[in-house]
Amino acid sequence: MRLKKHPILKFKRKKEITFFYEGQPIIAYEDEPIAAALHAAGITTLSESFRFHRARGFFCAIGKCASCVMEVDGVSNVKTCIVPAMQGMKVKKQIKAKVSPEEFSGPKVFKQTPVIKTDFAIVGGGPAGLSAAIYAARFGIKPMIIEENFLMGGQLIKQTHKFFGSKSHYASIRGIDIAKILINDAQEKGVDIWTSSSVVGFFSGNTLGVIKEGQYYKVKAKTILISTGASEKSISFPGNDLPGVYGAGAIQTLMNVYGIIPGKRVLILGAGNIGVIVAYQLLQAGIEVVAVAEALPRIGAYIVHSAKLKRLGVPIFTSHTISHVFGKDRVEQAEIVEINNKWQKISGTEKRLDVDTVGLAVGLSPSVEILSQAGANMTYIPELGGYITLHNINMETSIPGTFIAGDISGIEEASSAMLEGRIAGLNATNKIIGENKEIEQEITKNQKELVELREGPFGEKIRIGNQKLYKEAENNGIY
Ligand SMILES: Cc1cc2nc3c(=O)[nH]c(=O)nc-3n(C[C@H](O)[C@H](O)[C@H](O)COP(=O)(O)OP(=O)(O)OC[C@H]3O[C@@H](n4cnc5c(N)ncnc54)[C@H](O)[C@@H]3O)c2cc1C
Ligand code: FES
């Protein structure tokens, strides 16, 4: 079902088109991903597990988990959450990937792979990548952004809440509008933007392997920024693979970007900022939030967000976890249970909830795969979200001339991603044009703002994480 009315968002749907799912016509709109259009038509099972043929739906909706892969026009393993539906497309449920050489339908490889040369290649067009491009372009560089999704803006395009902070951090502006400002600015400054383009490898000689619309390219760059963001974590409980168990960010994408109702009655797991914000956004869209369950004995979100939920009568069960999801082809019920301070379930406290959707807001993991494959030095820092690429305060990694910014450098939020992007973009520019006093001053200014942003109790975790990170980086010769 599609949302017709929303207090903040206006869904200007483009031209109506028809594609075919297992031979059945499905109505979609131009620039709507296949998986979203299927969801709007009530089809939530996109594939089956190979062995037991259990129903599989999508989980992340941003191209990071592969639970939405389907066969599209004869090509298997298409991530249907980030590929737009097209007129006449033929889509099938994928029971197994085509693996025999005769059937293999991988990217078209030219006899001679085209090599694109650029001063500054940026992987990921979220707030970090866009900010880096804009700041580099201010000093005469023409960066190239390579973005896997067909839409630019990363996670900002689904954030309807207003940002905090100062004017430089776009205070009082909604995330969706900040995304538009950044995208327009990058376009006006002549940034070369490649959408629907995935970076699939990082090779010696500062070379990236890129697949764009089924064709393979090499991008050779003087400097590189990896700003690939993060992916949502899952937790283990019976039924966690059923369609209807989504990452909270996937609910946001479906609802706020495409105006599609994820379900009618929702349980959110996790009362940190993302969980509580998504719960409130569901209520704004007219969807019932049955409960929020949080394993910690306290609510982690900013009071300003959690107070809104409490005012609207949504129960927040602290010291509770999810113990089971029931259903055949999608979620029909969920069970939550109280836990003690050793995280053990307290028998007799189980509560069965009639829900058709469960949103997991249980944390994010930095998307480090590209740099891990390239052999960059890594470490594990729980406070930053897991495996992190070692880097210095200029955001440079152990691979000279390669930078990181945003969630990949530690899970935080969009304001810090933008500041890190600026710092990385300015340092990359310094490498290309030679050291410049004006750039140095800009770097110092943005580094100072980043320190200020992380002051106070909510920045404590990231401060502890970064202390560990810089120590380890120094031990590895990264200053
Ligand atoms: C699911 C989710 C929900 C969130 N919700 C909120 C919220 O409600 N409120 C809030 O304040 N913060 C939220 N955040 C945090 C905040 O949005 C992020 O901190 C911020 O967007 C990070 O910016 P980024 O540029 O590092 O990453 P992102 O915004 O995630 O952008 C990364 C981009 O890289 C692209 N990419 C990844 N891999 C490749 C590849 N191999 N090739 C090409 N492109 C690639 C992705 O498609 C994406 O567009 C959320 C984060 C996530 C992951
Ligand atoms: S990759 Fe499509 S749902 Fe995760």
Describe this structure in words.
Strands 8, 9, 10, 11, 12, 13 and 26 form a seven-stranded mixed sheet that branches. This protein has a five-stranded mixed sheet with strand order 2-1-7-5-6, with helices on one face. It has three domains: about 15-90, 2Fe-2S iron-sulphur cluster binding domain, sarcosine oxidase, alpha subunit, N-terminal domain (Ubiquitin-like (UB roll), Roll); about 115-230 and about 365-475, FAD/NAD(P)-binding domain (3-Layer(bba) Sandwich); about 245-360, FAD/NAD(P)-binding domain (3-Layer(bba) Sandwich), CATH 3.50.50. It has helices at about 35-40, 125-135, 175-190, 250-255, 275-285, 305-310, 370-375, 415-435, 435-455, 460-475, and strands at about 15-20, 25-30, 45-50, 55, 70, 75-80, 90, 115-125, 145, 190-195, 195-205, 205-210, 215-225, 230, 245, 265-270, 290-295, 315, 320-325, 335-340, 350-355, 355-360, 365, 380, 385-390, 400-405. It is globular and about 65 Å long. It contains ten helices and 26 strands. It is of the alpha/beta class. Helices cover about 25% and strands about 25% of the residues. The longest helix is centred in the C-terminal third of the chain and has 20 residues, at about 415-435. The mean pLDDT is about 95. The structure holds flavin-adenine dinucleotide and FE2/S2 (inorganic) cluster.
